[in-house]
Amino acid sequence: MISVAGVSKRFGGTLAVDDVSFEVARGEILGLLGPNGAGKTTTMRILSCFLATDTGRATVAGYDIAAEPLEVRRRLGYLPENNPLYFDMTVGEYLSLVAEVRRVPRVDKVRLIARALEGCGLGPVRGRIIGQLSKGYRQRVGLAGALLHDPEVLILDEPTVGLDPTQIIEIRELIRGIGSEKTVLLSSHILPEVEATCQRVLIFNEGHLVGQGTPAELAAQARGSEFVDLAVRGPRDQIVREIAAVPGVVECVDAGEDAGAPRFRVRCEAGADPREDLAAAIARRGWGLLELHAERLSLEDVFIKLTGGEGK
């Protein structure tokens, strides 16, 4: 549904996006992560035809962003970080204006506005002035405007910025519902938000795409090798030798004790998961297996490792 191949964009002496390539499938929710100036918003503006590329090619819903920008815009809904609302209009008046700008056929206008109001939970505030609404409701209005013409692709730049935790949950649920029917590309600086909402993640840093995949795949890329922590009751030296002999294990280190339990840290070959074989080896020797679990990196850990520090 979205295809980006070798896209680059320079602003003066700054290379904002450098040879970026990725694909987004129909019905997928893809998250963009990266610190300030990483290239996320520039990439979104290129895909929404607000900016032209210097090099490379991109298509949205099968249409080339350079050769067929009007066709791309017809099939695209875009919510920028600074929600462009008219605060002196009512919700209904604003959506009616969006319908006119989008050239929604008059015969479909009432139906599509009603569907946008219902889908974004705006029915009770249809007659309210937008400037009198909470930030959460204003974000809902922006989403409704982006969805009004029933686009195939939705691009959302920081859709939950400035919202309180309850409002974030509400917008997250809206995006999940939208993603069941449409392709969604969103950026966010809230790492747990992306992890909870998106099926795949792209991580940008200094204009480069430094990681992409599911959160689990990114964790594996960032880690390079797998680790398993165990607590086993038995003779320590023998446990270390027995575990080190299990296929897929690179080394086993005696990690001392924690709350009286003997602990061991196992480094495994990249991509290997020898937990079942480890448990079987310990059981054969009659030792007590008190604990066995694989190390899990959070998306925040991956983000920090791939970008070299914390950022937006």
**Can you summarize the main beta sheet?**
6 strands, mixed
Low-confidence stretches: none
Shape designation: elongated
Binned strand content: 25-35%
Radius of gyration over C-alpha positions, nearest whole angstrom: 25 Å
Number of helices: 11
The domain count comes to 2
Query: Residue-averaged pLDDT, rounded?
Result: 90
Provide the spatial order of strands within the biggest beta sheet: 6-7-8-3-9-10
- The SS-based structural class is alpha/beta
Give the proportion of residues in helices. 25-40%
> What's the total number of strands?
14
Distance between the termini: 27 Å
N-to-C order of helices and strands = EEEHEEHEHHHEHEHEEHEHEEHEH
CATH class of the largest domain: Alpha Beta
Assign the CATH topology of the largest domain.
Rossmann fold
CATH architectural grouping of the largest domain = 3-Layer(aba) Sandwich
Considering the protein shown, what is the CATH homologous superfamily of the largest domain?
P-loop containing nucleotide triphosphate hydrolases
Could you explain how this protein is built, in words?
With 312 residues, the chain is α/β, with parallel strands linked by helices. It has 2 domains: 2-220, P-loop containing nucleotide triphosphate hydrolases (Rossmann fold, 3-Layer(aba) Sandwich); 225-295, 2-Layer Sandwich (Alpha-Beta Plaits), CATH 3.30.70. It contains 11 helices and 14 strands. It has helices at 40-47, 69-74, 91-101, 106-119, 135-147, 165-179, 191-197, 215-223, 236-244, 275-284, 299-307, and strands at 2-11, 14-24, 29-33, 55-60, 63-64, 76-79, 153-157, 183-187, 200-205, 208-213, 226-233, 249-258, 261-268, 288-294. The strands form 3 sheets. It has a 6-stranded mixed β-sheet with strand order 6-7-8-3-9-10, sandwiched between helices. Strands 2-1-4-5 form a 4-stranded antiparallel β-sheet. A 4-stranded antiparallel β-sheet has the order 12-13-11-14, covered by helices on one side. Strand 9 and strand 10 form a beta hairpin. The protein is elongated. It starts with a strand and ends in a 5-residue tail after the last helix. The mean pLDDT is 90.
